[in-house]
Design brief:
The structure is a single chain. This protein is of the alpha/beta class. About 30% of the residues lie in helices and about 20% in strands. The protein has 7 helices and 10 strands. A 7-stranded mixed β-sheet has the order 1-2-10-9-6-3-4, sandwiched between helices. Strand 7 and strand 8 form a beta hairpin. Helix 1 crosses helix 2. It is globular, with a radius of gyration of 17 Å.
Length: about 260
């Protein structure tokens, strides 16, 4: 594994061999972060990512040895974004996590906080999810956002993360913690956490795998700062740790300076 500096911010760039090694390393980081959070403040708050890359991680967390080590009774699970589908739909981020992880572990149901993105009024759904976050953290929007212990993020081939896509309105959100986002390229809308709350996290963990992500990773880490085109460049934790956990295929275009 290697580490480096990106975008002028001190970050960890951890490079592993392949997708299987990435999932194992991610599981270790999740468990260590959860144990530390519970020891520090009595609970663990995490926002999960959808997409294909985290699936192996969630499968590992549902099985030994990781399942036995995670403090499920003290864990609160949120999501970084959600598609506008019901939870039973195959495209639902919540549905994927429920099938692979949540249905197999002893987490209290009231500590699983789902984005209700199937609602007709996405603006209202965003407001309700923001209120759910506020209740859990005893925070008060639109004040300074609370800090998740861990937020998992992925990287799209177009440089998007969560549902913050290039040239979309939610990129410019400065007050709301949760926002609907219209994505003309996909002819779709999503719900997403916004940059103000993402950057408050104690740790942000990017999971990036595969040769198809190499160009996007190189552009985000080494290219000019152009967040309208590369939204993942907006992820700059205020005081937290930023970790890029990537496999070798995804790093194939990085320079020797970083890779």
């Amino acid at each position: 594994m290697k580490s480096g500096q990106t975008l002028g911010h001190v970050s960890d760039l951890l490079v592993v061999a392949d997708q299987a090694a990435l999932a194992q390393e991610a599981a270790k980081l999740v468990v260590a972060t959860a144990e530390e959070a519970v020891a520090r403040c009595g609970r663990f708050t995490v926002a999960l990512a959808g997409g294909s890359t985290p699936k192996r991680l969630y499968s590992l967390l549902a099985a030994k040895p990781y399942c036995a080590r995670l403090p499920w009774q003290e864990t609160h699970i949120f999501w970084g974004d959600e598609r506008v589908v019901p939870p039973e739909h195959p495209d639902s981020n919540f549905g994927m996590v429920r099938a692979i992880l949540l249905s197999r572990v002893p987490i209290p149901a009231n500590q699983v906080h789902r984005m209700q993105a199937e609602r007709a009024d996405l603006d209202a759904a965003a407001g309700e999810y923001e209120a759910e976050i506020a209740r859990t953290f005893a925070a008060q929007p639109p004040d300074e956002p609370p800090a998740f212990d861990l937020i998992l993020l992925g990287l799209g081939t177009d440089g998007h993360t969560a549902s913050l896509f290039p040239h979309t309105p939610a990129l410019r959100e400065t007050k709301r913690w949760v926002a609907p986002n219209d994505i003309p390229e996909l002819k779709a809308s999503r719900l997403t956490l916004t940059i103000p709350i993402l950057n408050r996290a104690a740790m942000i963990l990017f999971l990036v795998s595969g040769i198809e992500k190499a160009a996007a990773l190189q552009a985000v880490l080494e290219g000019p700062f152009d967040p309208e085109q590369l939204p993942a460049q907006l992820i700059r934790p205020v005081t937290g740790r930023l970790v890029w956990l990537v496999d070798q295929a995804a790093t194939s275009l990085l320079s020797e300076r970083i890779g």
